[in-house]
Amino acid sequence: MFDTRRLEVLVAVADHGSVSAAALALSLTQPSVSHHLARLEAQAGVALLDRGPRGSRPTAAGEVLVEHGRAVLDRLARAEHDLADVVALRAGHVAIRAFPTAFIDLVPRAIDGLQRRTPAVHATFSPGSHDSAIEAVVGRDADVAVVFTDPQRSGATLPGALQRTHLMDDPMLAVLPRGHRLANRNQISLKQLATERWVVGTTRGPDSIIRRACAAAGIQPDIAIETDDLLVVQGVVAAGLAVSLSPALAVAHTRPDIVLRPLTDKQLFRRIEAIDNTTDTTPAAEALIDELKLAADDLCGG
Known about the structure:
Layout: H1 4-16, H2 19-26, H3 30-44, E1 49-52, E2 55-58, H4 60-87, E3 93-98, H5 106-117, E4 122-127, H6 130-138, E5 144-149, E6 162-177, E7 197-200, H7 209-216, E8 222-226, H8 230-238, E9 244-247, E10 258-262, E11 269-277, H9 283-299
Helix pairs in contact: 1-2, 1-3, 1-4, 2-3, 5-9
């Protein structure tokens, strides 16, 4: 493979007509230019310049190499320019995969902040489960994953060279009808809801936030309905048919006939994290994570 510096020297001689003029244009000494040309001709196995008392001009073989050399040097110059744009956030693309309720407030705020800060960076985004979001980052289908974990599991090892950035702790809230007997309390405990009927998510086992919280409080929930549809949850609760628990992010915008109350069970929260790849983090991805942290701070009242 031809050395690009030697190609640059050959093109300079063709453009300026002599070794001395090429040396001056490239800020090199004449012996250095002659050395580069000699090495290039040795590699090509053919004379590349006709040298005479009035200067040097490319041979037929030299013309071929000069033409390709110009194309190579032009492409490299464009690569440097495009790379500089990406590094300076004057161009680029970033893809984010996040759990669905992150799109109620957190992710849109972050993307809006990114576009205001770097309007030339194009962001794409889509919802995904915890595992699929992380797999997307591992497979380079996404630059950043936003996931939630149980605080007791947040130290789990991530695959490959992935790293986690803590964004916020998302507290669980009691979701009650406005006329509920506990609606006027500043805080309530899960034990106070032991006799209620419940709306719970469709996920069963240790990954069900509500079931896990009730089990920790010694409650066997009387389940009225299982659904992951937030509008259905609010409708059932508003009608006084059941109560529920919800992460604060998921109920950022609620109907007026339900109330949200903090829990005295302070250990009940989700840890929200951004995941990216340490070996392939782009300036755009770093900027997006910065905006996610700012959005999280705003949502937490920081």
